Amino acid sequence: MIEIDEELCKGCGICTDFCPMKVLETSDKINKKGYYPPKAVKEDECLGCRLCELLCPEFAIFIINE
User: Which residue of 12, 32, 36, 40 has the lowest C-beta tally within 10 Å?
Assistant: First the structure.
């Protein structure tokens, strides 16, 4: 499961650019800071590699293995 804290996100795009399965894409919704956070569009295809979690400079993404 992918948890995204939209209010911590600064819209850098690292998570969307580096996801090997292209699970994340930029949302069309703006957070309180004025940034476009990512959204999980193909969460069922997530490998759980945690690359998005590791690369996020704001610690806004968490992968929860079930």
Answer: 32
Confidence bin at 50 (pLDDT 50/70/90): very high
Specify the pTM. 0.85
CATH number of the domain encompassing residue 39: 3.30.70.20
One DSSP character per residue, 15-39 reads HHHH-TT--EEE-SS--TTS---EE
The tally of domains found in the chain comes to 1
CA distance linking residue 17 with residue 56, whole number of Å: 11
Structural domain of residue 8, as residue ranges? 2-63
Residue type for 33, please? Answer: K
Under DSSP, the state recorded for 50 is -
| Residue type at position 16 | T
**Confidence (pLDDT) at 65:** 82
